[in-house]
Input
Amino acid sequence: MWEVTVKGRPVPKPDPKCFGRGGQHRLTIPEKAPGYKDWRTRCNAAGQALGRATGQKALLGAWSIELILIMPFPASLTPDRRPWPAVRNGDIDKLTRLMLDALTDAQVWGDDSLVVDLHAVKVYPHSPHPDADVLGGDTGAVIRIWRPTQHA
Output
């Protein structure tokens, strides 16, 4: 199993926007969404570190991945009322989609369709999850990958 951490504020992948008129349309991902570019760059750098750790140019075959997303506390909640698990801060599918795309861009694998087992969880720092404080109370993510035939 290989593991890498990413510090920063996890941001979901924005929805594509459609532009056009007169029968000519195109879809684009709005890169100006707050924090998108920074988080994607950080995830890409983590993917490059993961690629170096595996010692392979691009991974082949089936892979399992675990993503622990350490989210910022909502400002509207007092410390004694912070729910567990984290229920705000973006859709988990959009958070994982951005990270898988960044790992693909970093050439960890040829295509994220090689991921056959995905486990993702959103947590707050200092919550009961065993990996909640792996970044010392900061926000970010832990990425673990392994072969499905291995145990995590």
User: Anything to note?
Assistant: The beta strands are 2-7, 17-21, 24-28, 63-70, 115-123, 140-146. The chain has a mean pLDDT of 84. DSSP finds two helices and six strands in the chain.
